Amino acid sequence: MHIKGFQKLSLLDYPGLLAATIFTGGCNFRCGFCHNPGLVLKHREGSDLDIDKILITLDKRKKILRGICITGGEPLLQDDLDEFILAVKNMGYLIKLDTNGSFPDKLKLLIDKN
Questions:
Q1: Which of 15, 21, 25, 34 has the smallest CB count inside 10 Å?
Q2: Measured between alpha carbons, how far is 108 from 45 in angstroms, rounded to an integer?
Q3: What is the pLDDT of residues 57-110, one digit of tens each?
Q4: What is the pLDDT of residues 41-68, one digit of tens each?
Q5: Domain 3-112 in CATH 3.20.20.70
């Protein structure tokens, strides 16, 4: 998974919950109003964040946080998104996925997996 940003605490990204936010790189759209254009246009620049370190941090914060917001870019471009979501759900987190809706089949697969 190409994780380009990690916010350890968000009071906005998951309404009603203390959450962390994961920012994925890359998007299939080029919207002029995008609030994360660096993740869209420059997603190949710089290195990805270490997923294992993020999972360790999330595991340590599960008594504080209730949810995880996964955003981007477009998260559904990530081939191993379902594995990451499963790892986070197994910690007891609720998941909010911000998507542009252009991959309904992938989204349905995730929903079907609960």
A1: 15
A2: 31
A3: 999 999 999 999 999 989 999 999 999 999 999 999 999 999 999 999 999 999
A4: 777 788 999 999 999 999 999 999 999 9
A5: yes
pTM above threshold 0.85: yes
In the chain, where the domains are located: 3-112
| Terminal C-alpha separation, the chain | 20
Give me the phi and psi of 76, to 5 degrees please: -70, -5
In the numeric block, which tokens belong to residue 19?
């959450």
What's the order of all strands across the beta sheet hosting 67-71? Answer: 3-10, 19-24, 67-71, 94-97
Query: Tell me, what amino acid is at 5?
Result: G
**Strand ranges, E, within 3-81:** 3-10, 19-24, 67-71
Task: Locate 13 and state its tokens.
Answer: 């990204």
Contact 22, 61 (CB under 8 A): no
Directed axis angle between helix 51-60 and helix 81-89, to 10°? Answer: 20
